Amino acid sequence: MSRLDGRKLLLTRSAEDSADWAETIAAEGALPIILPCITAEPSDDPNLVTSIAGSLEQIDWIVFTSRRGVDAFARLRVNPLPASVRFAAVGEATAQSCRERFGRVDLVGGADRDGGGTAAALGTALATDPSIGAGANCLLALAANAGDVLERKLTEAGASVTRIDVYRTVPAEPREQKRALSTLDCDTVIFASPTAVTGFDNQIDIDIEPQFVTIGPSTSAAVRAHHWDIAAEAKEPTLSGIIESLLETAHV
């Protein structure tokens, strides 16, 4: 018997990211149901290309926390990258995108047992590199609404950090007529970002009482702002953390 047998879990990330999680959830015995509540958009900042071009010659590390960041950066850069620059990626999926775009990756940090990772764990892994403490120049290619934990960890370790927001995540647009949650045949709704909470609310009429499970405090705050009860909050911001919180809630 698998750990989540019989559960019906609604995933509210982007279609691509939800598909990755669905495989793990299905392996645990649950039925994954995908409802994309966010999409990613490349930055439309007209000064972004100039900012990147002006930073490249001094950069020792380029750091990515998602595949989207890799792709968005690759599309925006205008100069050849210095041969000495090193690449860091948050997990294996992001690392693979880095290899495809730039031919290599030098550090893969923050990997959890789902193959994903966190910005905090990546920062910890990078901080052990001798170049960071020696004042390495790090360029972070991130989402506009990403947190600052990676910047803080690298700065505390002695690095000089330049952040460039190369894309942003946006909620699904409001539907003129919302869909009843009961039609999706789920018992649990999983949120991995405040943006997904907004996108969910834009699309769905809550006509049943599901369990709402969140990836962390900021997402929980977004759920509570809608006056929805939270069944569980992951202790670690990963899919593994979400699954463990589900198991605790179910007393499995």
Number of helices: 10
pLDDT < 50 runs, ≥5 residues? 111-116
Count of domain modules: 2
N- to C-terminal distance: 12 Å
Report helical residue fraction.
Answer: 25-40%
CATH uppermost class of the largest domain: Alpha Beta
Cross-sheet strand order for the largest sheet: 3-8-7-4-5-6
Taking all Cα atoms into account, the compactness measure Rg is: 19 Å
Mean pLDDT: 89
Biggest sheet architecture:
6 strands, mixed
SSE topology string: EHEEHEHEHEHHEHEEEHEEHEH
Strand content: 15-25%
Based on secondary structure, the structural category is: alpha/beta
Q: Any idea what the CATH architecture of the largest domain is?
A: 3-Layer(aba) Sandwich
Gross morphology is elongated
| CATH structural fold name of the largest domain | Rossmann fold
- Strand count: 13
Task: Set down the secondary structure blueprint.
Layout: E1 8-11, H1 15-27, E2 31-34, E3 38-42, H2 48-55, E4 61-64, H3 67-76, E5 86-89, H4 92-102, E6 107-108, H5 119-127, H6 130-133, E7 137-143, H7 149-156, E8 160-171, E9 179-180, E10 188-191, H8 194-203, E11 204-205, E12 211-214, H9 217-225, E13 232-233, H10 239-250
Parallel strand pairs: 1-2, 1-10, 4-5, 4-7, 5-6, 7-8, 9-11, 10-12, 12-13
Antiparallel strand pairs: 3-8
Helix pairs in contact: 3-4, 5-7, 8-9
